[in-house]
């Protein structure tokens, strides 16, 4: 089982929450944290996770989860409601970068994702979730690549594909309808011509009979 699957099962499922995405991170600037603050457990891995409740009305949140060295379990640390997120900074909109900042009402963190690709995927999910679940004050996304904001987003590509397929099907039906319409017109013309021919032939026959 992957770390993210384990986090989903261990941290969120017991609370009837569904994890939408997660990114493994390290701090860009080291904070001086007392030894006792980590429980004396030494090194650890950090994940920033995005989740929603299964119960309506849906509540979305961002949670910091840690896994300490030598342990197979995960620990929930800080958590913020999505409404508390004020700004998402992608650092550089012109290149793939693993760095990013998250600004909350009461916290600010500077992170480096394990890979630029993992950050990009998490940002796309985060942006989509903000658009879907936040109706009033949405966070500001700055210095982000266009693909994250919807240009080539994996979340929009599926919708685009469906829309394209519907448009093609509709166009095909319209073209088929036009072809059927033209065929019906031709059939009607032939029918009229045949009727006129029959009437003319009948008149000629009556004339010769007289």
From TrEMBL:
PROSITE patterns registered for this protein in UniProt: V_SNARE
GO molecular function: phosphatidylinositol-4,5-bisphosphate binding
Highest rank taxon of the organism: Eukaryota
Key words of the record: Acetylation, Coiled coil, Cytoplasm, Membrane
Predominant location category: cytoplasm
Protein known as: Syntaxin-binding protein 6
Residue ranges of domain V-SNARE coiled-coil homology in the record: 151-210
Quaternary structure and partners: Part of a ternary complex containing SNAP25 and STX1A that can be dissociated by NAPA and NSF. Interacts with STX4A.
InterPro entries per UniProt: Sec3-PIP2_bind, STXBP6_PH, STXBP6_SNARE, V_SNARE_CC
Membrane topology reported for the UniProt record: Peripheral membrane protein
Biological process annotations from GO: exocytosis; Golgi to plasma membrane transport; regulation of SNARE complex assembly; SNARE complex assembly
SUPFAM superfamilies assigned to the protein according to its UniProt record, in alphabetical order: SNARE fusion complex
Localization (cell): Cytoplasm; Membrane
Its job: Forms non-fusogenic complexes with SNAP25 and STX1A and may thereby modulate the formation of functional SNARE complexes and exocytosis.
Cellular component terms per the entry's GO annotation: exocyst; plasma membrane
Pfam families found in the cross-reference section: Sec3-PIP2_bind, Synaptobrevin
């Amino acid at each position: 089982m992957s770390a993210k699957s384990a986090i989903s099962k261990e941290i969120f499922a017991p609370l009837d929450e569904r994890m939408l995405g997660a990114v493994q991170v390290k701090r860009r600037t080291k904070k001086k944290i007392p030894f006792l603050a980590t429980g004396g457990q030494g090194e650890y891995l950090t994940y920033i996770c995005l989740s929603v409740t299964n119960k309506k009305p849906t509540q979305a949140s961002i949670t910091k989860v840690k896994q300490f060295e030598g342990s197979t379990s995960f620990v929930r640390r800080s958590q913020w409601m999505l409404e508390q997120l004020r700004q998402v900074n992608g650092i550089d909109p012109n290149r793939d970068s693993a760095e990013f900042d998250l600004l909350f009402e009461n916290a600010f963190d500077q992170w480096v994702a394990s890979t630029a690709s993992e950050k990009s995927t998490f940002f796309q999910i985060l942006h989509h979730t903000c658009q879907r679940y936040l109706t009033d004050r949405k966070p500001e996304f700055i210095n982000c690549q266009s693909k994250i904001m919807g240009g080539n987003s994996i979340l929009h590509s599926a919708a685009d594909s469906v829309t394209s397929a519907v448009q093609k099907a509709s166009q095909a039906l319209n073209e088929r309808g036009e072809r059927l319409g033209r065929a019906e017109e031709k059939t009607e013309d032939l029918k009229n011509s045949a009727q006129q021919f029959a009437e003319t032939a009948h008149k000629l026959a009556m004339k010769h009979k007289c």
